[in-house]
């Protein structure tokens, strides 16, 4: 079965790609991440994905569009709800691309992260799959968390410290008030 793997970053794609290939999927990557801030971070992650693709012989379609203003306009009024828009916008773009390119299924490397809302991602993926006539492949890739970390270090990939958006960057680096 042909599957389109939305890739949020190289590190998070390592284990899912291995699992999908072991399940006999024919995998193609898809990079669209308009949420990443600042622009230098976006570029580092894009280059890491390109390097990873070469190392793992993975064909990837790149939607290399830095649309920070659009992302911020959608989440600025409700920063706490930002993840829902972030998931939906990227998954919908991947589902649309999968349908247009004749794929049978799609999934996302977001499902590798311990920090993402798996049930929400799964709900959105399944809704979009139905809308676009696809199958959403849910797999809890978190079981390979340590394996992915070790592999990314061995490959010398850039390892980011936050999910990508300006709000997660703040959460990572800004001192928190103590209660």
Automatic annotation (TrEMBL):
The record's InterPro entries line, in alphabetical order, gives: QueH
Binding-site residues, [4Fe-4S] cluster: 8-9, 83, 86
Q: What catalytic activity does the UniProt entry give for this protein?
A: epoxyqueuosine(34) in tRNA + AH2 = queuosine(34) in tRNA + A + H2O
Which sequence ranges form a coiled-coil region, renumbered to this chain?
Answer: none
**Its annotated pathway?**
tRNA modification; tRNA-queuosine biosynthesis
Please give the superkingdom of this protein's source. Answer: Bacteria
Record-annotated disulphide pairs: 163-165
Q: Name one GO molecular function term.
A: epoxyqueuosine reductase activity
Name the EC number(s).
1.17.99.6
Task: Give an example GO biological process.
Answer: tRNA queuosine(34) biosynthetic process
Q: Which UniProt keywords apply?
A: 4Fe-4S, Disulfide bond, Iron, Iron-sulfur, Metal-binding, Oxidoreductase, Queuosine biosynthesis, Redox-active center, tRNA processing
- What is any Pfam family matched here? QueH
Q: What does this protein do?
A: Catalyzes the conversion of epoxyqueuosine (oQ) to queuosine (Q), which is a hypermodified base found in the wobble positions of tRNA(Asp), tRNA(Asn), tRNA(His) and tRNA(Tyr).
User: What does the sequence similarity comment in the record state about its family?
Assistant: Belongs to the QueH family.
Name of the protein this chain belongs to: Epoxyqueuosine reductase QueH
